[in-house]
Amino acid sequence: MNITGNTIFIPGATSGIGLALALELRAKGNTVIVGGRRTELLERIAAEHPGIDTVRIDTADPASITAAARQVLAGHPDLNVLVTMAGIMAVEDWRKPEGFLASAESVVTTNVLGPIRLIAAFVEHLQTRPAATIVTVSSGLAFTPLAVTPSYNASKAAIHMLSESLRLQLAGTSVQVVELVPPSVRTPLLPGQEDNEAAIPLDEFVTEAVGLLQAQPDAHEIQVERVKFLRYGEARGDYDQVVAALNTHDPHGK
Question: b or e along 73-85 (b: 16 or more beta carbons within 10 Å of the residue's beta carbon)?
Fold first, then answer.
């Protein structure tokens, strides 16, 4: 992926990693379209950041994805990058169904079906562009589980394998598949996460991630240094210790 001169759609970018990434990519010389559910946030982003386009989209709603895709492509027929950013995370108790079932269904709908439906809405168009990229967003928790978020962990493991498989299928096309693998980042993804001192500051994460995109245009995965502890525990042979360390220091299950 070239770091400049693209037209990029980032659904789920009204806050957190998505918004910070959108602003950083805009600063690198890209046209950026931000998508989200809340119109008041979209209006604020458009007012505070002239030049960024906004589109209302609910990635848990197939009809909303279809309508947003039509709007994005009508306004930006040169679109060549899709970042499937939207995602939710929840603390769950799997010892009783009322502690997890509704949450798990919501997480899977947003984190797994959402990206699948987004890719379905844009993949044919992207193949018409001379150079295009699908950026998926997994997590270090796809590789090392956090005990209190089983559905989120599983959803991100699914995104990792989807990315690996999609890359194989699109190998003969103009579409590159890049997986962004964040560690714990200080965002509002869970209550208290913005103040979690064990998490990487948001601006530090985005600066490093975009720097890696620029330095490694053919990379399959974008891994900042902080995520490698989780990403490679099994390969290093210290997986059990990594799982223990992650869950001992996590504040959300306490």
Answer: eeebeebbbbbbb
